Amino acid sequence: MDKLNTDTKYRASIYLRLSKEDGDKSESDSIGNQRDLIHHFLKDKPDIEVVSERIDDGYSGVNFDRPAVKKMIEDAENGVINCIVVKDLSRFGRNFVEVGKYIDQVFPALSIRVISINENFDSINGRSQSDNILLPFLSLINDAYLRDISIKVRSQLEIKRKKGDFIGSFAVYGYFKHPENRHKLVIDDYAADIVRDIFKWKIEGQSQQRIADKLNELDILSPMEYKKFCGMEYQTSFQTNAKAKWSAVAIGRILKNEFYVGTLVQGKRTTPNHKVKKTVTKPSDEWIRIENNHEPIITNEEFAIVNELLNSDTRVAPHKTEVYTFSGLLYCADCGNQLVRSSVCRNGKTYFYYMCGKNRITKKCTSHRISDTAITDGILVALRQHIANIVEMERILKYIDTLPYKSTNVKKLNVQIISKEDEVKRYEHLKTALFENLSDSILDKNEYLRLKYVYDEKQQSAELAITNLKQEIDKLIKNRTEETLWIEKFKLYQNIDTIDRKIAVNLINKITVYDDKRLEISFKYQYNFDLALSFIQSMEKEISPRNKVKEAV
Amino acid sequence: MNGIDFEAMKKVDVRTVNRSTLKDINDVVVDIALPKEERLRSFIEQIGNPYCYKCGDLVVKVSFAENTSATLEDRLEHYLSTM
């Protein structure tokens, strides 16, 4: 400290910090008050000249990862300042170990004078006996204060999670936070429709990438852009493009999110303690899951089907938009690998067949070759017989009559077209205004061209979206007629006559293929011939006991 | 139709079963106008083993889901609801 005593002028930095998190809520701790107190204290100390004021507003004292404190320490290291003034030590930091390191080692080594007003501590005076005992204690108490708050907050959040309160900063895509209770969620009709489409397209056999491309073509805002559009202050350091687009990963995340069936899953990640900011993922059995917590967007069945599909390895063939009917359902009985589809040309006709994937690559399994027609036929006949003989057709026909005529999708797209048309008009106006600004010399030519380019681009993407939306409507109407036809036919023949991807994934769990044209179909529904038959027989006994002997074959 | 051993039928090994002993599902004809019970009975009578049969020159073994209460009616309704 001798050197410091000879220095007549001190170049001081005053440091102010206020945190929202660690409970510095009292008025005395406001930045303004800290500043006033320090300036009042320095009034009669002409040897101290304030050269900088460093403020960390909204930063916790738990660590030194604060921009202003970092700058101040840098200044100290570079000799720009040689004195630091704070209202109390807890402003400088609450981390016992780190604060001790700076006060006892770093600053003395750099000959920095440290003044903490409330603790009546000034390093120029050296340390009294009581300082030596008191300072570490104060520092320890500052630290304990943090720990205490952390425990309170953590347990409070835990209670909220267990209660089924949503505690995320932003609602999951497809939901809004309830306007009156931010811990509850309500369905956002617009986004929920998109989520439903995403699940539907996946079941129809489209890949995540294809779904993402499709949404981008329709100029539908990605969840991040949608948050911004709704006026939420969402920021991320991961964004790389000017406008965030849909990606296959985002689609995959939506398809796997149990949130959409009404299950609230929280507490997936945590930090080891309040001083370490690094998050770690908890094992999934420690997550807090609350079923039927909010209104679902997707049914459990649909979610289950989609997640089985995600677990199987499927690939959309080149120049196709959807996977083949049985993709991901066909397995080799001997090695467990999936079967792969191939084609062969004979006499100008193309035949498709499946064979064991392992056989094709390594020849370590037999071929298990089976024709596409044989499989399709085997499954179609089985399903037709089940539908004809074990289904209560009355119930299904009645159910069909309750189905609403779905015009909502077309309406939805029409609304989107109108909003895109408005957008096109708006950019047209903006461009006119821009040109006027150029004529009035408010803008120079470069600025004009740059802005015009931006508007042109946005206008073009809106125009493209309109074209895509119109095509989508055409497709919907065409599908509608196909679907209506399908239902009409089903009602008439009370059966199906083809198998598409959607039927396959709804009704079939797995098809195991053995050598020598043998296969096992495992269905997704339960049935027991034994029980069904004995049920019928018991019914007959009750109705007409005398027929019993006759009926027994 | 009493005394049919469905458990034994379920256990038939699709790898080793003799093709010629199996009935062909394509030959099964059931009148859809019959009540559900009659249709089921007629189907079982004609197919012999509803868990293992022939379909053309294909040997087909059938198994139903065990970990769900969903019936074929439920699955069909779900399919129809997503159309």
Automatic annotation (TrEMBL), chain A:
Protein name: Recombinase
Ranges of residues in domain Recombinase: 172-316
A Pfam match: Recombinase
InterPro entries per the UniProt record, alphabetical: DNA_bind_recomb_sf (IPR038109), DNA_bind_recombinase_dom (IPR011109), Resolv_N (IPR006119), Resolvase-like_N_sf (IPR036162), SSR_resolvase (IPR050639), Zn_ribbon_recom_dom (IPR025827)
Domain Resolvase/invertase-type recombinase catalytic, first and last residues per copy: 11-164
Species name: Anaerotignum propionicum DSM 1682
From TrEMBL, chain B:
Domain DUF6870: 9-80
UniProt xrefs under InterPro entries: DUF6870 (IPR049222)
Highest taxon in the source lineage: Bacteria
Listed name of the protein: DUF6870 domain-containing protein
The organism of origin for this protein: Anaerotignum propionicum DSM 1682
Upper lineage: Bacteria, Bacillati, Bacillota, Clostridia, Lachnospirales
